[in-house]
Structures are given as C-alpha cells and as structure tokens.
Amino acid sequence: MPNYETVIYEKQRNGVLITLNRPETLNAISRQLEHDVSEALTEAENDPEVRAIVLTGAGRAFSSGYDIGAGRGETVWPYGLPEGTSVAAILDDWRDRSRDETAKLLQIWELTKPVIAAVNGWCMGGGSWYALASHMTYAAEEAVFAQPEIRMISNTNFFWTLNAGYKHALRYGLTGDHIDAQEALRIGLVNDVVPGDELLEHCFRVVERIALVSPETVKINLYVATMGLEMMGLRNALVLNDELSAHVQSSQREDFKREMQDAQKEGGLRAFLQVRDGPFQPEPFGPRSRVRE
What we know:
The chain has 293 residues and is of the alpha/beta class. It has 10 helices and 12 strands. It has helices at 31-46, 87-109, 126-133, 158-164, 166-173, 181-187, 199-210, 215-231, 234-249, 254-277, and strands at residues 7-12, 15-20, 52-57, 61-63, 75-76, 81-82, 115-119, 122-124, 136-140, 144-146, 179-180, 192-194. The strands form 3 sheets. The protein has a 6-stranded mixed β-sheet, sandwiched between helices. It has a 4-stranded mixed β-sheet with strand order 4-8-10-11. β1 (7-12) and β2 form a beta hairpin. The chain is globular. The N and C termini lie far apart (47 Å).
C-alpha cells in the first residue's frame, strides 16, 4: 500500500474512507495532496473488496480550496505579472495548471466505483469542485460552500453549473458568496443534509446498500450517467473552462488586487482574506452571515 503524506486511507464496511489530512490549513489542496488523492483513488479502484469510496476532510473543513498561501513570486504592476515572466508564459503556465486540475476532477468523475463526498464543514473553491465532481454529495448541517477566490480574480468551475444549474451557478459564481447546507440542498449541490456526527455513518450506509448490487451493474449504471453527460458535452465544457481559467488568471487588475497583496505583505494571509472578503460581509448564508461577537 502506498505511503500517503496528506491523506488517510481506511478500508471499512465494503468501502474505503479517504480523508484529506492537512487540518492545519483546513485541508488546502497542495500538489502533494492532489497526488495522494489520485493515488488513493487508484488504489481503491483496483481493490475488488472496495465497492464505493467516501471522501471527507480532517478537522473542521472538507477543504478550503487550492493552497493560496504558497504564493507565486513578486508581482509587478500595473499588469500583475510575476517578476521576470511574460503574458505568453503566464498564460501557458495557467493553462497547464488548469488542465492538471481538471484531470484530477475527471479521475473522480470517471472512476468505475461511486465516490461519495462527505462535506463536514468549510468546502471552498477547489475543495467544492472535488465535492461536486463526486457522484454523490452529503453535507453536515454546518457545511459551507463557496468560491471566494472569484473575489481575487479567479475562475469558477463548470461542475457548479452542472450541479446547481445555470442561474444558481451564476448567482454564486459571480460573487463568491457563501452557501450553507440547506441552500446547497435547495439548489442541488448536495443529496441531503445530516447532523455532523451522523455524516460518515450516513454515507457508509449508502456504501453498504451499493455493495448489495453486483459490481458490474454499479459500474455500468454509473457510466450511464457520467458518460452520458460527457456525450452531451461535459468534457468539452471543462476543456473550455481550462482555457478561460488561464485567461481570467492572467487578467489581473491593480485596482482590484493590489490592496489584497499589500495587506498580505504586512499582515499575512489573514489580512489578505480580510481585505478580500470584508466588503462582502455579512454573507447571505453560513457563519459569516452573523455579526461576530
């Protein structure tokens, strides 16, 4: 069995629990975590004893999204390019990065065994993409979904449109606003909402019911849905998503970004997030919808 640095792999109850395990960063998605999740999914797919996979996060988050704490070097304004690079190079870099990220999501989507996301808290940005690329998604009552990176000049993902529908996806994809578990249920992001202490039990009851059906039937019926949507254009939409992601990431504006970067230099990531998200508070849903005591 592979030795994972950032995930915990636990076989149980006809399935496996894969836990994102970077709780000190709210399970932010690093390159190592991407690699480990991919390897763990491959291991589960190749194990005939595993009939379905539950994906969750350690601590108080499913995932806070892609790790923005690492940074990309000093930015040169007014064009917002990293020092020593060019528009052509940065477009190419973001295009490659977006394609790699989509490949990881499609691995989940195209897996021959069902993946069930158990969202146990904050589910932000790229973390929400992992949850929505999963075949089923169950949320704890305290779960919060959002794509707040939109507020720092970044892209949404078509998996939101696939799950929430055109109008709901735009409502939240153009603002980065927070969505609580009940709103996520209303707009179709999740299958159901359950108490936090019952979340994994609920998901593994689904795993056990899936295991009562022959594996070939599960595999083929999974493909009826996933491959059917690909035939309707899902993969093409994700390819376009990658190209447009490169463009939005390269469309930096000093008047919308520099204040955040200056705050980060002076006060770290917390200061950066305060400048980014402060103007949007109170959020329409979730813990940030209430005034802090």
